[in-house]
Structure formats: C-alpha cells, structure tokens
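Supplementary Methods. Inverse-folding protocol.

Structures were first reduced to a discrete structure-token string of length 285. This string, shown here, constituted the complete conditioning input.
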C-alpha cells in the first residue's frame, strides 16, 4: 500500500489545494465587505502611525522598515479587504489632525479609545491596554507603590492618556489627602521620558503594560513596575465620524481575522495575547 504521508507529489498537491482554498476564502471575504468608492477605486488605504512605540510600531533596527503589532494588524486588514496599505509615519500629536484633514484614512498607533475622543472620532477597538507607572533599578527600593510617588517627578509623553491618568490619580489619591502632588515633566515621546529617568531628571514614568514588558525584555532588570495598572482601556483604530463605511469595513475585516486565526497569530508572535479583545465599535456603546 502506498504511504500517502510520504508521497512528495501528493503532499505538493495537498498544499496547493490548501493555498488555493485559503486564497479563495480570503477573496470571498474581501468581496463581501463594502469599501468607500474612493478607496475601492484606488485600492489603497493610507494609515497613520507613530513609529516609535515598540512593540506596537517601530523601525526594525538598522532599517527604515516599520514593524510591530499594529503594523501587522494593519497589513492583515489590507489583505482581508484586498487593498494596499501605505503607512504615514508621523509625530503622535499629528495623528488625530491627520484623520480630520483626510491626510490618512485611519490611524492605528496604540491610540486609546476614550469618551472624549469619541465625541469627534469613531473607533474599532482591537487591543486592551492601560497605564502602568514604572521606575528604574536605582529608584526601585524607594518607589514600591503609587503612594510613594508623592512629590516625585514623573516624565511622560505629553500627548497621551498616560499623562491625564497619572494627573487624575495624583489629584484623587494624593492632593485630596493633603499630600504633595506628583510633579509632571512633559516630554515628546516615551523614549524621551525614559531618558529623563536614566539621567536622573525624573524618578518615574508611565506607559502601557505591553510596552513596559517590551522594555523589560530589551533591558533585563533595568525597569520595574510601580503599583497596579490604572484605567484599563482599549486601543482603537481611529476614523472620521463621517466615514462609517470604512469603519464598518475594518470592523468586518477584524472580525474575519479573529475568526480565521490571523489576529491570534499576530498577538502570539509579539507575546501580547493577554491583550486580546473582541473587535467593537466605540467600546460597544
């Protein structure tokens, strides 16, 4: 009897059929999702990112190639929709204005879906995150809890929710009790905030837990969390409110990616599977 499992020709045929079936399924999913006419015509979506936020989006060391969780999710969305994805790498504080002006079709860049932002934009939530205070090894012994941050200097990216979250925590838990507030040192990026700690201008910063995990892997023993994760919230893919057709197309693509395992594979590759969530528009509200 012929051993089918050891037949190279049969294996090649099986793989060929599998690839054909996969391509057909992807094509069928793409055809069923309706895109705005302008995007359908040019077969291209321009995506805003701020490529200095590993593991979500950053430049592959020594190259100009963008890599990361958000980059791969955006590329998979493009494949599902049958369009080319073009990235527009910008400063973080320019991302939302770029959506408003139409410079980009949507933003995916570790951007929190908040009630305030929903007044102006729509979101497709795809990732669960939050705010994690952290310090370096030199300060770890004296900064064991958030209460220990009273009167200390916190360097933090000025255009992020981490800033407002830490300000609110300080107001509610320190200032309201007559204790010195956390002193805020606003900077232009997470990397700049970290540098302030290393150089001694600040004792603490705050970032998302997945980024702190990345830092810990890249710099073993150098950075440690302080206190619990604050204000757990989702990251959302951001759209203009007057573009519901594109929003719904991306939601459909994300739903398909969850169904076929693509989403899970991307998160597993970057070791952030604990941050998975069900894709929803504006948090399901």
């Amino acid at each position: 009897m012929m051993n089918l499992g050891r037949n190279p020709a049969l294996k090649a045929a099986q793989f060929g059929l599998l690839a054909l079936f996969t391509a057909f399924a992807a094509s069928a999913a793409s055809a069923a999702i309706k895109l705005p006419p302008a995007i359908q015509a040019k077969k291209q979506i321009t995506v805003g990112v701020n490529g200095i936020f590993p593991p979500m989006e950053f430049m592959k060391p020594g190259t100009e190639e963008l890599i990361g969780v958000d980059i791969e999710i955006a590329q998979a969305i493009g494949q599902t929709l049958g369009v080319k994805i073009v990235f527009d790498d910008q400063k973080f504080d320019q991302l939302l204005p770029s959506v408003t002006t139409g410079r980009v079709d949507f933003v995916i860049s570790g951007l929190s879906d908040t009630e305030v932002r929903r007044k102006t934009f729509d979101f497709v939530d795809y990732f669960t995150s939050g705010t994690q205070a952290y310090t370096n090894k030199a300060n770890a012994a004296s900064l064991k809890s958030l209460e220990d941050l009273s009167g200390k200097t916190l360097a933090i990216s000025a255009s992020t929710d981490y800033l407002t979250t830490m300000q609110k925590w300080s107001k509610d838990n320190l200032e309201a009790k007559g204790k010195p507030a956390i002193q805020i040192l606003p900077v232009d990026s997470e990397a700049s905030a970290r540098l302030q700690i290393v150089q001694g201008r600040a004792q603490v910063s705050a970032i998302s837990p997945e980024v702190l995990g990345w830092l810990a892997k890249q710099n073993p023993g150098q950075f440690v969390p302080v206190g619990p994760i604050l204000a757990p919230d989702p990251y959302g893919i951001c759209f203009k409110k007057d573009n519901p057709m594109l929003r719904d197309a991306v939601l459909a693509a994300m739903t398909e990616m969850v169904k076929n395992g693509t989403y899970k594979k991307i998160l597993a590759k970057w070791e952030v599977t604990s941050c998975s969530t069900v894709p929803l528009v504006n948090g399901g509200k």
